[in-house]
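It is worth pausing here to work through a concrete case rather than discussing structure prediction in the abstract. The textbook approach is simple: state the sequence, then state the predicted structure, then interpret. We follow exactly that order.
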Amino acid sequence: MSTALVVGLGNPGPQYAATRHNVGWLAVDALAHRSGASFKRHRTGAEIAETHLGAPPAPRAVLAKPLSFMNLSGGPTSGLAKYFNVEPTHIIVIHDELDLPLGTIRLKRGGGDNGHNGLKSITKSLSTKDYLRVRIGIGRPPGRQDPADYVLKPFAAAERTEAQIVIDEAADAVELLVRDGLESAQNRVHVR
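Step two, the predicted structure:
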């Protein structure tokens, strides 16, 4: 893969930092930490870190955290794709997924947004669904709790260790995607 644009979805602000909806941001932070990259504000409305993922000669990547709220992630994503001349097929979006249990990661290209407003915004702004996705399972809310409230809550104390593990595994999955491609990465990630 030539330059990859890796977009972690989340909401800006300290009140959202450790919430389920921000696992995409947390995975991008983990990737930046591994490579020693630091984020800087970019004119497209995102924080970015330019780095290489993995050992040399590792592929170049632009790690991004849109500073718009989740529902407006498409504008910064599209702006970064244009600025860095990255085709949609080389964009990797990391996001939370209600329909997967906590601790599960699934990789795919394209597909629907499943009610995820961040994906809906990105698909609209890119005019295509043909980008890669790293779906991080956060599970369904208990009882009758509204999913919109559930995703904006921090992980429960009993879930925090597993949440950190799955965030690190999502970072691993991104490195596999960039280095080996979708099919090979799926073969390794989906067996866990």
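Step three, interpretation. The longest helix spans residues 160-180. Residues 4-189 form a domain with the Rossmann fold fold (CATH 3.40.50.1470).
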